[in-house]
Specification:
The complex is a heterodimer.
Chain A: H1 4-14, H2 21-33, H3 35-60, H4 68-84
Helix pairs in contact in A: 1-2, 1-3, 2-3
Chain B: H1 2-24, H2 27-44, H3 53-75, H4 114-130, H5 133-140, H6 149-156, H7 160-181
Classes of the chains: A mainly alpha, B mainly alpha.
Chain lengths: 85, 185
Amino acid sequence: MLTCKQISQLVSQSLDRPLSWSERVQLKLHVLMCNACRHFKHQLNQLDIAIQQLKNETMLDQTIQLPIDAKTKILQAIELDKKSI
Amino acid sequence: MADNVNNWLNDHGDYLYRFAFARLRDTHLAEDAVQETMLAAIKSNGFKGDSSARTWLTGILKHKMIDLQRKQFREQPISDLIDLDASDTSMDDLFNQSGRWLDKPQTFNMPDNALEQKQFLSVLDGCLNKLPKKLRVIFLLRDVHESDNENICKELDISATNAWVMLYRARMGLRKCLELNWTGA
């Protein structure tokens, strides 16, 4: 029997790699019986969705701009780079 | 050539910067990533016009962000950040000796209107900033690596196990922080 701690690791890894058949079965059975781990699994899905929303919001935020001095720095770096060739 | 860079910066600089900032959450790192992208773009002469300049530049940016991340991993060994041996105690405040939850997780009350959504994302942003930088970046860059995990590890020169442990730590930290700071409506 896997503990909740081990199950929480499996839940996390299920988002990063394909689980084996036996891992999937153990996870499914545990989550069926354990409210806390079922909620945890749901939390990680909610977290993934929220992270995607945060990225989308950042992409749409026109107030986030490459600062002027960073632009100048980049153009200077390119000049320097050209000379060094 | 210089005209090209000027145009690229004017037309796509903000977009590239936002793309980098969305995943690095650090203004200096994001600026560095855009600068490296421009330097690489001008050298490569690779733009054939068969894709849009933006798509092409974004492709370069993704590589540069992974490079920056790899550099971070080289500078500080992962063992400084995570204890991988069996005596690891970092999760002891979450689970008891027999591996049961000390505080049982509850699902989050997700926002259901625009104002709440804004507040929620701002709490999430705060939680991301509290994570150790490497954990934050490996977690946020997941969508930039070619989706499978083997690639992340190859590109970052770390073992798959280390990557899973770090992603686990990042998620545990974020969910705990959200539980503490987001009560919902």
